């Protein structure tokens, strides 16, 4: 039933996209399956670069101007350099000048940055030269550091501003938002975004389940594009970064029902806190521009975490292919000699955000009996499995070609295992058995995972088995860390010893 509903929504959304003009919404690439500029990565890189530039400029000026490298001189330098090197970045962070809108509004934010520098260096001058230690420091050094250092930062910020404004990167830095719920709350929110001085979000449309009599077709400059079910399919065909739910918090039943359908998407979901007469803890809400929004779900992997996991995948997968190439060659030879047909088997499976990917495996079945759709699960002593196939399935050697999928960016080393499109528990599709099943697709699937090392691998002849697998998958997604990945990778070889469920 859920599969039919999803297919219907996909068809509707495809028709919806085809009917929209460029002014309505511009479809974009998936934000994670294709190269997409990450705001946190750029902001973090600017923060690190400017801090190094600040400290480096003062250090070089000290070395070349004073040319005194004695221990006494260094002990005088370190406290002042440490104070300036910590205070300026900290105040810049507090004033939100390391955020993308500040880069894109350089002309407005440059005076604030100048005031921070002037304030910090003035404080240092007052402390140093109105105390007994003033004679130990060079006014030329501190003055040169203040003027020269700020000039370097100013030139860097101006160059960054020019680069972002004159390239397509600025378009990717804008968060593409969809409003869930129309009417007056949506209109008020749109007006607030338009009036905000720092606009770093592009609202591309509105989705609402209510009829046109309760939810207008047009809200300000934006059209209502469809229902919430159509939004789920829509977000899988065009880049959506954040969903902003404008429903009133008092509509608890409706709100929970909507969130239940939306949380399977790999996007940030926010409840609009604008115009609500409530006070929230700072950790409960965030800002887009100057608009407060309730945080409901966060994208599981983004910014530095996504970059770190991508590096982990590429480096370790490359290393694994080099080390395991003799084993893979022997398995390929055994498959070829055991039965006629290709060495590799390709199967369509669900990937990140329900995207269909082609997963590689060593062929373990007779060609004429292969089941590309996985309509029938492999069971113990299954006659479709070859002699070599039985061994490589039990030992998971048939999965080794999936390291190539990792290098292609379709899989991760660690993540929920990718399931075939028609995989079933007993006679029911996984989507019909597990509520919120597609939430496991908020990250890339993996070669191994938390469920696998805990014994949840192999045949799913009962509904409990797939339910427990999904529970483990969701736990992994919500608790991801690099150390967690490394722990799972270290445990994987030992988990392969237990082969009772693998046929």
TrEMBL record:
<dbReference type="Pfam" id="PF02397">
    <property type="entry name" value="Bac_transf"/>
</dbReference>
<dbReference type="InterPro" id="IPR017475">
    <property type="entry name" value="EPS_sugar_tfrase"/>
</dbReference>
<protein>
    <submittedName>
        <fullName>Glycosyl transferase</fullName>
    </submittedName>
</protein>
<keyword id="KW-1133">Transmembrane helix</keyword>
<dbReference type="InterPro" id="IPR003362">
    <property type="entry name" value="Bact_transf"/>
</dbReference>
<keyword id="KW-0472">Membrane</keyword>
<dbReference type="Pfam" id="PF13727">
    <property type="entry name" value="CoA_binding_3"/>
</dbReference>
<feature type="domain" description="Bacterial sugar transferase">
    <location>
        <begin position="309"/>
        <end position="497"/>
    </location>
</feature>
<keyword id="KW-0812">Transmembrane</keyword>
<feature type="transmembrane region" description="Helical">
    <location>
        <begin position="73"/>
        <end position="92"/>
    </location>
</feature>
<feature type="transmembrane region" description="Helical">
    <location>
        <begin position="141"/>
        <end position="164"/>
    </location>
</feature>
<dbReference type="GO" id="GO:0016020">
    <property type="term" value="C:membrane"/>
</dbReference>
<dbReference type="GO" id="GO:0016780">
    <property type="term" value="F:phosphotransferase activity, for other substituted phosphate groups"/>
</dbReference>
<feature type="transmembrane region" description="Helical">
    <location>
        <begin position="113"/>
        <end position="135"/>
    </location>
</feature>
<feature type="transmembrane region" description="Helical">
    <location>
        <begin position="48"/>
        <end position="67"/>
    </location>
</feature>
<dbReference type="InterPro" id="IPR017473">
    <property type="entry name" value="Undecaprenyl-P_gluc_Ptfrase"/>
</dbReference>
<feature type="transmembrane region" description="Helical">
    <location>
        <begin position="315"/>
        <end position="335"/>
    </location>
</feature>
<keyword id="KW-0808">Transferase</keyword>
């Amino acid at each position: 039933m859920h599969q039919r509903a999803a297919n219907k929504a996909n068809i509707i959304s495809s028709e919806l996209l085809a009917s929209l003009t460029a002014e309505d919404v511009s479809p974009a690439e998936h934000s994670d399956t294709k190269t997409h500029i990450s705001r946190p990565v750029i902001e973090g890189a600017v923060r690190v670069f400017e801090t190094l530039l600040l400290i480096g400029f003062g250090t070089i000026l000290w070395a070349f101007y004073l040319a005194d490298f004695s221990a006494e001189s260094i002990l005088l330098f370190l406290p002042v350099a440490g104070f300036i090197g910590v205070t300026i970045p900290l105040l810049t962070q507090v004033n939100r000048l390391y955020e993308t809108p500040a880069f894109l509004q350089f002309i407005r934010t440059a005076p604030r940055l100048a005031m921070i520098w002037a304030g910090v260096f003035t404080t240092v001058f007052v402390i140093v030269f109105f105390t007994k230690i003033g004679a130990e420091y060079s006014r030329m050094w501190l003055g040169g550091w203040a003027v020269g250092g700020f000039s370097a930062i100013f030139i860097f910020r101006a160059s960054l501003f020019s680069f972002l404004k004159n390239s397509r990167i600025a378009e990717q830095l804008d968060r593409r938002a969809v409003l869930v719920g129309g009417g007056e709350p949506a209109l008020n929110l749109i007006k607030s975004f338009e009036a905000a001085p720092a606009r770093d979000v592009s609202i591309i449309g509105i989705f609402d389940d209510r009829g046109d009599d309760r939810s207008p077709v047009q809200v300000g400059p934006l059209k209502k594009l469809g229902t919430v079910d159509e939004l789920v399919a829509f977000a899988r065909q065009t880049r959506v970064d954040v969903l902003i739910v404008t429903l009133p918090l008092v509509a608890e039943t409706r709100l929970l029902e909507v969130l239940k359908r939306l949380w399977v998407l790999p996007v940030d979901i926010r409840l609009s806190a604008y115009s609500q007469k409530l006070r929230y803890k700072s950790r409960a809400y965030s800002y887009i521009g100057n608009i407060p929004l309730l945080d409901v779900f966060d994208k599981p992997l983004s910014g530095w975490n996504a970059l770190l996991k991508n590096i982990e995948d590429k480096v370790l997968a490359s290393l694994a292919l080099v080390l395991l190439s003799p084993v893979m060659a022997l398995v390929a030879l055994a498959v070829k000699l055991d039965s006629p047909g290709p060495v590799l088997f390709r199967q369509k499976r669900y990937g990140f955000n329900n995207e269909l990917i082609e997963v590689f495996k060593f062929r373990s079945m007779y060609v004429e009996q292969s089941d590309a759709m996985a309509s029938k699960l492999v069971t113990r002593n299954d006659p479709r499995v070859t002699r070599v196939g039985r061994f490589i399935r039990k030992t998971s050697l048939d999965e080794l070609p999936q390291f190539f999928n990792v290098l292609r960016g379709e899989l991760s080393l660690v993540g929920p295992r990718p399931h075939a499109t028609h995989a079933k528990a007993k006679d029911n599709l996984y989507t019909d058995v597990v509520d919120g099943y597609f939430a496991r697709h908020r990250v890339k699937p993996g070669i191994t995972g938390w469920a696998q090392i805990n014994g949840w691998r192999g045949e799913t002849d009962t509904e409990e088995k797939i339910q427990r697998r999904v529970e483990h998958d969701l736990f992994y997604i919500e608790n991801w860390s690099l150390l967690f990945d490394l722990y799972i990778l270290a445990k994987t070889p030992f988990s392969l010893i237990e082969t009772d469920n693998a046929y």
